[in-house]
Design goal:
Number of domains: 2
Oligomer: single chain
Helix content: over 70%
Radius of gyration: 24 Å
Strand content: under 5%
Order of helices and strands: HHHHH
Shape: elongated
């Protein structure tokens, strides 16, 4: 575990290695908006901008949202598959069955999404 002194020292060393500047122009109101957001994140505006730009360039920012959206789509698919099959057979679903299905989807959709992504990744490696 690092102490505050070691963390501060490391950040200082990393900052001293940064020698290039990437800049852009914004309006006064845009600057206030960016500065306010950075402050709410507990960062200086320059550090927040740096981290945001790097996360975008590395594809990190959209990845979490894409995974979340994919997981929700998998959940919808699981729900549809779990409800349509009995309905197409002419069966009726009672409220208890739906409640159980909703709980199952909520607890298993993330694992199922990860499983599908892993399978797709293995297919692409071949």
């Amino acid at each position: 575990m690092q102490t505050d002194g070691m963390t501060t020292n490391r950040a200082s060393v990393e900052a001293s290695l940064r020698t290039k500047t990437a800049s852009t122009k914004v309006t006064s109101s845009e600057f206030r908006e960016l500065e306010s957001f950075a402050e709410r994140q507990g960062q200086s505006i320059s550090e927040w901008i740096r981290q945001t730009l790097l996360a975008e360039a590395r594809g990190e920012r959209g990845s979490a949202m894409n995974l979340h959206i994919f997981t929700e789509l998998v959940g919808i698919q699981m729900l549809l598959m779990g409800t349509l099959e009995p309905l197409l057979r002419g069966d009726k679903m009672v409220q208890d069955q739906l409640t159980i299905l909703f709980r199952q989807v909520q607890t298993t959709k993330a694992a199922k999404a990860q499983e599908l992504l892993a399978r797709r990744s293995k297919k692409q490696e071949k």
